[in-house]
Specification:
Layout lengths: L18 E2 L4 E6 L3 E6 L8 E5 L3 E4 L4 H9 L3 H8 L10 H9 L1 E2 L12 E4 L7 E2 L5 E6 L4 E6 L10 E2 L8 H12 L12 H22 L6 H18 L5 H14 L3 H19 L1 H12 L22 H4 L3
Parallel strand pairs: 8-11
Antiparallel strand pairs: 1-2, 2-3, 4-10, 5-7, 6-7, 9-10
The structure holds zinc ion.
InterPro entries: SET_dom, SET_dom_sf, SET_domain_protein
Pfam family, one: SET
Organism: Phanerochaete sordida
C-alpha cells in the first residue's frame, strides 16, 4: 500500500533481502510505496496468483464499532496482521480507517453500478499496490470464500503485482485526482510517468475508451457494423494501454452485433475471444457463459434479430485496413 510520497516505480527487483509470504510471492518494501508484492516466478495470463480468505468482512453499513467487534472475534495472528496494514484515513480512526484503506469486494462490483454486499480485508492482497495498467485482477470466489487474484497478462519473475484501485478509463490528471482523494498518494506508475506526446496519446486513448465503454454498456452503437468496428478499435486501444480487464465487455458487443445479423462465423470468433478474456480475468466459472455461445452462437437470444449481413471477427485484417 502506498505511503503517500511520489516515486518512480522500479520494474524489477532483486530477489535478495525479501521476506517470504505465499509460495511464489514476496512482500517487500517498494521504493516510494511502502510494502508491495513481487512475483518470484513467471505467471501465465489467467493463472491464479493468490487465493486468500479474508481476515474478516463487513457489510456496506459499517462503523468503527462494527470493525472493532469483528476484529475482536479474530485469532491473535489475524488481529496482528490487520494492525500491520496502512491507514490512509487516520481521521476515521485506526480501526475503520485501516479497514477502508485496505477493503476489497467480497462479491461483484460491476459496471452497471451493482456493489458487492460485503467487503473484506486480506493480509497479503492488502499489500498490492495500485497501477494504472494493472497486471492482476481480483475476483471473489463465493463457493470457497476466498479472494482470487489472477494474472491479467503474462507476468515475469521479479515484476511487482499491481491492481487497479480507481477508474482506469480516465486521463492521467483525473486518475491521479481520484487516487489522491481516496488513498492520499500521487500515482507514479509507468503510465503516469509518461510525458509529452506519449502522455497525450495515452490520455486520448483512455478518453476514447471511456466514451466507447459507456456507449457499449448501453448497446448505444447505431449500426451493427459500427458496433463491431468500435469493439475492434477498443481492443486495439486496450492492447496499447495495457488494460486487458475490459476486453470481455467489448467482445460482448462484437458478438452481439455479429449474432444479430446471423454472421455466426464472426460471432463465434468474438465469443472465443470473450471466453479467453473472461476466463483470464474472472475464472473458468464466470467464463462458462461463453462456452455454449462458442459452440452455438445461434442460440443467443438476439441471434438473427436484424437483417442478414457479413461483418468481421476481432482479428480480421479488415480493421487495420480501415484504420480501426
Ligand atoms: Zn498511474
Amino acid at each position: 500500500m502506498y505511503l503517500g510520497e511520489s516515486h518512480r516505480r522500479t520494474a524489477r527487483h532483486t530477489l535478495t533481502d525479501l521476506s517470504p509470504t505465499a509460495d511464489d510471492l514476496y512482500i517487500t518494501d517498494v521504493p516510494g510505496k511502502g510494502k508491495g508484492i513481487i512475483a518470484l516466478r513467471y505467471f501465465q495470463r489467467g493463472e491464479t496468483v493468490l487465493a486468500e480468505p479474508p481476515l474478516f468482512t463487513q457489510g456496506l453499513v459499517r462503523s468503527a464499532a462494527s470493525v472493532r467487534a469483528a476484529l475482536a472475534q479474530c485469532p491473535p495472528e489475524a488481529q496482528h496482521a490487520f494492525w500491520e496494514l496502512h491507514n490512509c484515513h487516520p481521521a476515521r480512526g485506526s480501526a475503520l480507517g485501516t479497514f477502508e484503506t485496505n477493503v476489497l469486494p467480497c462479491g461483484a462490483n460491476d459496471a452497471h453500478g451493482r456493489v458487492a454486499p460485503r467487503g473484506g480485508v486480506f493480509a497479503t492482497a492488502a499489500r498490492l499496490n495500485h497501477g494504472c495498467a494493472p497486471n492482476v485482477n481480483n475476483a471473489w470466489d463465493a463457493a470457497r470464500g476466498v479472494l482470487v487474484l489472477r494474472a491479467l497478462r503474462d507476468i515475469a519473475a521479479g515484476e511487482e503485482l499491481t491492481l487497479g484501485y480507481g477508474a482506469l478509463l480516465a486521463r492521467r490528471e483525473d486518475r491521479r485526482a481520484e487516487l489522491r482523494a481516496k488513498f492520499g498518494f500521487e500515482c507514479a506508475c509507468e503510465v503516469c510517468v509518461l510525458e509529452g506526446k506519449a502522455r497525450a496519446a495515452s490520455d486520448a486513448r483512455r478518453e476514447c475508451l471511456a466514451a466507447l465503454y459507456g456507449a457499449h454498456l448501453q448497446g448505444a452503437y447505431g449500426d451493427p457494423f459500427d458496433g463491431v468496428g468500435e469493439a475492434a478499435l477498443a481492443l486495439r486501444l486496450l492492447r496499447e494501454e495495457g488494460l486487458p480487464v475490459y476486453e470481455s465487455s467489448f467482445c460482448y458487443s462484437g458478438f452481439h452485433c455479429c449474432a444479430a445479423v446471423s454472421d455466426y462465423v464472426s460471432a463465434k470468433a468474438w465469443a472465443v475471444k470473450a471466453f479467453e478474456a473472461s476466463r483470464a480475468a474472472f475464472g473458468e466459472e464466470h467464463a462458462s457463459y461463453w462456452k455454449g455461445l462458442v459452440a452455438n452462437p445461434n442460440s443467443y437470444a438476439d441471434a438473427g434479430s436484424l437483417g442478414r449481413r457479413t461483418l468481421a471477427g476481432p482479428d480480421s485484417p479488415l480493421w487495420s485496413v480501415l484504420g480501426f
